[in-house]
Design brief:
The protein is 33% helix and 25% strand. It binds adenosine-5'-diphosphate, aspartic acid and magnesium ion.
């Protein structure tokens, strides 16, 4: 039997009624002769609520227990989806991550998928089950504890299942009808793209465009999964949405194809650290051990053997970062004069494969921001991306101005 993977995000399964609506789509694919693997997220807002409960209970929480709590939202929707399908006379069964078992590393809250054995589910399909419903976002560590794959991780569950089961397609159903040139919620001129290259999508996702989790794009690229993003609210249409594909499938590559932002960034500076070999390792080693996701890093020029070290991380990891650094100071591994956290910054990035062969994108980006009177605090670049850290209050203005300047309203 040909097999499809269909993933439904939080808004698509927000109520029993919405679950019924998307289950009908699954029913249509089943009636076309497909076996279907459905991956579900938690109901809209549920995971945020669970994260809030963990933070309220234990601000510097143990990540194993965080995973035990925040993985639970998906268990509810998986069961409800299977029940809804059964009500429609479609033979369906639900699986939590550990039951598959979807094996992961033991990096709690940011686990990576190691293996998805297919036997259990394939045996059920052979017995007449037509839909396997899988709780997204969760798996099991080698020691048997529950893990989660990081926020937005159900996308990665979906692509990993598509790869493991050699699915004909992996459809990611969400609350927008595809991948846009920027978030349509903050820029009304944003355009839907019919196709986007894996590498561009990868950079957009890692720069904050949460429509797909970065790891899901990485996996799709590696295993050549046919990945489509589309709305669960539109009429069913085989040509709908955005296809994420190899760049060879795209006729004309844009110099800039999208603008992304990440709202909740913090900039932390260690003032006056000794400038000696090993200092970066002594700072960023403990941060990594503490589970802090460091993004941009800048080391200033040193004067008299001392320097300032600046890095960015998500706002909600600032306390954890401060503790890791002050513990490192207490142990004598590092020394610094002061540590300053600026929690009012955001990251804005422009992405495009055409940047490889076009100079001047960075200069243009900086000019646009300067014309708007926006000060740039940190800059980083990759081959196809330029990111800046700016005051959060200018974030939307910056996204809109860059979208205009690179004429993205003409894309699509
Ligand atoms: P789901 O719950 O279905 O996983 P998410 O909220 O994780 O949905 O992702 C969809 C959201 O991503 C959209 O509602 C949109 O606001 C946001 N988004 C950010 N950047 C983009 C983009 N470039 N194209 C489309 N959506 C984007
Ligand atoms: N429910 C999880 C989250 O909100 C996973 C997902 O929706 O992809 O991050
Ligand atoms: Mg998501």
């Amino acid at each position: 039997m040909p097999l499809l993977v269909m993933k439904f995000g939080g808004t698509s399964v927000a109520t029993p009624d919405r679950i019924r609506r998307v289950a009908k789509r699954v029913g249509v694919e089943v009636s076309k002769g497909y076996d279907v693997i459905v991956i579900v997220s938690a109901m809209a807002g549920e995971t945020n609520k669970l994260v809030g409960l963990v933070n309220e209970t234990s601000p510097l929480f143990d990540a194993r227990e965080y995973d035990a709590v925040v993985s639970s939202g998906e268990n509810v929707t998986a069961g409800l989806m299977a029940l809804t399908l059964q009500e429609m006379d479609v033979p369906a069964r639900s699986w939590q991550g550990w039951q598959v078992p979807l094996r992961t590393t033991d990096i709690h809250a940011a686990a990576r998928i190691v293996e998805i054995p297919t036997e259990n589910i394939t045996a059920k399909f052979a017995e007449g089950m037509q839909v396997a419903v899988i709780a997204g976002f969760q798996g099991i560590a080698p020691d048997g504890r529950i893990t989660t794959l990081g926020r937005g991780g159900s996308d990665t569950t979906a692509v990993a299942f598509a790869a493991a089961f050699d699915a004909e397609r992996c459809d990611i159903y969400t609350d927008v009808d595809g991948v846009y040139t920027t978030d349509p919620r903050i820029c009304e001129k944003a355009r839907k793209l019919d196709k986007i290259a894996f590498e561009e999508m990868l950079e957009l996702a890692s720069a904050g465009a949460k429509v797909l989790q970065t790891r899901s794009v990485e996996l799709a690229m590696r295993y050549n999964v046919k990945l489509r993003v589309l709305s669960s609210f539109d009429e069913m249409d085989d040509a709908a949405g955005t296809l994420v594909c190899g760049e060879e499938e795209i006729m004309e590559l844009n110099v800039v194809s999208g603008v992304a932002y990440s709202r909740d960034e913090a900039k932390m500076t260690l003032i006056s650290v000794a400038d000696r070999p090993g200092i970066a390792a002594a700072i960023f080693g403990p941060l990594s051990t503490a589970g802090v996701n460091v993004d941009m890093i800048v080391q200033n020029i040193s004067e008299e053997g001392r320097t300032d070290m600046t890095f960015s991380c998500p706002t909600d990891q600032v306390k954890r970062a401060e503790k890791a650094i002050s513990d490192a100071k207490a142990s004598g591994a590092i020394n610094y004069h002061d540590i300053v956290a600026d929690t009012g910054v955001a990251k804005v990035s422009v992405v495009g494969i055409g940047m490889r062969s076009h100079a001047g994108v960075a200069a243009k980006m900086f000019k646009v921001l300067s014309d708007e009177g926006i000060n740039i605090k940190v800059i980083t670049t990759s081959e196809i991306k330029i990111s800046v850290l700016i005051d959060r209050k200018y974030m939307e203005l910056a996204v809109q101005a860059l979208h205009d300047a690179f004429e993205l309203e003409k894309a699509g």
